[in-house]
Write a structure and sequence with these properties.
Lambda_DNA-bd_dom_sf; mainly alpha; DNA binding; 434 Repressor (Amino-terminal Domain); HTH cro/C1-type domain-containing protein; 90 residues
Length: 90
């Protein structure tokens, strides 16, 4: 069984689907941070230096295992020379 087939089966379970939906913001943050960092050709360490934080903080954000403050997100956006957008989508 490949991942797409397995994922489709998992999503049939309402509890699994609910948890995946709940984690979507962390996933989107991680994806966009990784993409921006790679586009700027920065390592996690280099980004951390520019954002005045540590590499572990960047790693946790990219893995989706932390919930950053708005202050940290602003620092990272500035270090990436990027705009930070936060929105509620109804």
């Amino acid at each position: 069984m490949n991942w797409k087939v397995f994922q489709k089966e998992l999503l049939k379970d309402p509890e699994v689907a609910k948890e995946i939906k709940k984690l979507e913001p962390e996933y989107q943050l991680a994806r966009s941070l990784i993409a921006a960092r790679i586009k700027r050709r920065l390592t996690q360490q280099a980004l951390a230096r520019k954002a005045n934080t540590d590499q572990a903080s960047i790693s946790r954000l990219e893995s989706g295992s932390s919930r950053p403050s708005l202050t940290l997100l602003r620092k990272i956006a500035a270090a990436l020379d990027a705009q930070l957008f936060i929105k509620f989508d109804l």
